[in-house]
Amino acid sequence: MVAVKNQLDYSSLRLGIIGGGPGGYEAAMVASSLGAEVTIVESQDVGGSAVLTDVVPSKTLIATADAMTAAADADALGIKFASAGGATGDTPGLDTTTPAPAMWADLAGVNQRLLKLAKDQSADIHATLVRKGVRIICGRGRLLPDHTIEATTDAGTELIDVDAVLLAVGASPRELPSATPDGERILNWKQVYNLDLLPEHLIVIGSGVTGAEFASAYVGLGAEVTLVSSRDRVLPGEDPDAAAVLEDVLQKRGLNLLPRSRAKAVARTENGVTVTLEDGSTVDGSHCLLAVGAVPNTQDLGLDDAGVAVSESGHVVVDGVSRTTAFNVYAAGDCTGVMPLASVAAMQGRIAVAHLLGDAVKPLRIKQVSSNIFTSPEIATVGVTEADVESGRYQADVFTLSLNSNARAKMMHVKDGFVKVFARQGSGTVIGGVVVGPRASELIYPLAIAVSQKLNVDDIASTFTVYPSLSGSIAEAARRLHVHQ
After folding, report:
1. Count of H helices and E strands in the chain?
2. Which of 25, 293, 333, 395 is the one with CA 20 to 30 A from 352?
3. pLDDT of residue 80
4. Do the beta carbons of residue 15 and residue 332 sit within 8 Å?
C-alpha cells in the first residue's frame, strides 16, 4: 500500500498585497492556488503600470512602428504599392490640398488601439484573479505595524489584518525640476499616448532603454526625432556592439543623435518646445519626451514604522527570496530596484510566496535573467556581459556571428544584427549571450536555457535547428566555440 503525503493547508494564511502589477498579481495567483486568503489593494486597475501605461502600450506602439518599417522596406523584397493619388478628408492630420503619402501613422487610432488592448489585458487579469478567489480593493494601500494594511478608497478607510504582506508598488517616471511634464508638449512615457497627431519633431531626452525604444518607434512611425544623450552613445549600459548596430541603423533612418549632451531645461513655446542643453545651445521641436529614469513609489507607505528598510534611492531593500527587513513583509518589482523588468517582478512575487508558504524555492539569480530592448532591431541579452569579461570577473571565450551570413536573414532582407555567445574558458559552458535582430526576444530563449541549465556549447551545436532559420546562427556560433578534446 502506497502512503499518500498530505498537502499542507494554507487556507488560514492571510496575504495582503499592496500593488496589482506583475509582482502582485502573479504572487496572488500562486498564493490563492495554494489555498491562502489573498487581498490586493491597487490604486489603478489590476495590472499596474506595466499593463496600463508602460510595457503593454509601449510594445504595442512599437509593433505598429515595426509594421511600418517593414512596409517601407518592402520594395527590397519586390513589393510595389500603387500611387496614393490625391488626398481626401479622411486623411487625418494632413493638408488635404497636397498629395497624400502612400503610408502614414494614424496616431489617434494607434493610441486608441493600444489603450484598449491594455484595458482588455487588465480586465482579463482581474477576471482570472476573481475566479481564483482573490479579493481586489480599488484604493491606496498603506502598511501599518503588526501586519495591518490601511486601504483608502472612495468609500472610506478599511483596515485589513493579514499574516504577511507583499509590497509591489512599482515606480513612476522621474521628472526634471526644470522640465515639468504638461501632458501636451512636454511628456513622460505615461502621457505620450495622449497624442492624436504624429509629432513633427520629437525630442527624446535620455538614451537608456526607454528613450531608445521610443526614439526607435517614432522614427519608424515617420516622425523627425532628436535623441539627447548625456553619454557618448545610445544604450550606454548595454552590450557595446549591440548599441553600435542600433545607433547606426537609427541614424540611417534619420535619427538625429546628440551625444555627450545633457538637457538643462525644457520650455514651452508658442508652437512647440525648446530644450536648453548644459552648454547653452538649444534644440527646438514640436514635442519633448522625458525618459530619464524612474523613482520607486515608496513614499507615504508607512515603511519606517513597519520596520521596512529602504535604500538612499528610496527602493525597498530585499534579499534573494524577496524578504524585506520586516518579519513576513516581502517586496517585488520596480520598487525594489533589482531589475526594472516585468518578468523579474513576476518572478520575485512567485519566489516570495514560495518562501512564505514553505514551498521549494530558489533565490533570484540575476545572471539568469534574459531581457530585451524592443528597438528595431531588437536587442536581447542573458548572463555574462562583455563588460564582465573585459573587467576580468569572468574568463570566457566569445564568438560573434553576423546575421549577414544567415540564409533566412538574407531571404528576409535583414542586414543588421548578430549572435554573440560567451562560453567559460576550458569547460565550454555557456554563461551568456546577445542577440541583435528581428524577434531577438524570442531567439534569446535557447541561450537563456543554456545559461540557466549550465549547458555546454556542444549541447547547443549538436541540437538540430530548422534550415533556414535565424536560430541556426545560434547553433553555428556555439559550434565555433567547440573545444577540441
Report:
1. 14, 23
2. 293
3. 85
4. no
442 vs 299: CA distance, rounded Å = 37
Name the amino acid, one letter, at 115.
Answer: L
**182 neighbors 194 (Cβ within 8 angstroms):** no
Residue-level length of the chain: 485
Are 251 and 259 a contacting pair, CB within 8 Å? no
**In angstroms, rounded to a whole number, what is the distance separating the alpha carbons of residues 280 and 285?**
16
Task: Quote the CA–CA distance of 283 and 296 in Å, as a whole number.
Answer: 30
Report whether 137 contacts 39 (CB < 8 A).
yes
- Please report the pLDDT score of residue 483 as a whole number: 79
Q: Give the separation between CA 88 and CA 99, rounded to whole angstroms.
A: 9
What pLDDT does 485 receive?
Answer: 66
Helix (H) / strand (E) element for 126: namely: helix 107-131
Residue 336's alpha-carbon distances to 133, 322, 331, 366, 475, in angstroms, are: 27, 9, 7, 13, 36
Q: Which residues of the chain have pLDDT under 70?
A: 1-11, 83-101, 485
Does the CA dihedral 232-234-236-240 come out positive or negative? negative
- Cell numbers found for residue 191: 502621457
Please check whether residue 418 is in contact with residue 241, taking contact to mean a CB–CB distance below 8 angstroms: yes
pTM: 0.92
Q: What are phi and psi of 171, to 5 degrees?
A: -145, 165
Q: Which amino acid is at 2?
A: V
Q: What are phi and psi of 153, to 5 degrees?
A: -125, 180
pLDDT at 82: 72
d(CA 105, CA 61): 11
On whether the CB atoms of residues 114 and 273 are closer than 8 A, the answer is no
Backbone angles phi, psi at 239, to 5 degrees: -55, 125
Per-residue pLDDT tens over the stretch 345-404: 999 999 999 999 998 899 999 999 999 999 999 999 999 999 999 999 999 999 999 999
In eight-state DSSP terms, residue 77 is: G
DSSP 245: H
Q: Which residues pair with 99 in a beta bridge?
A: none
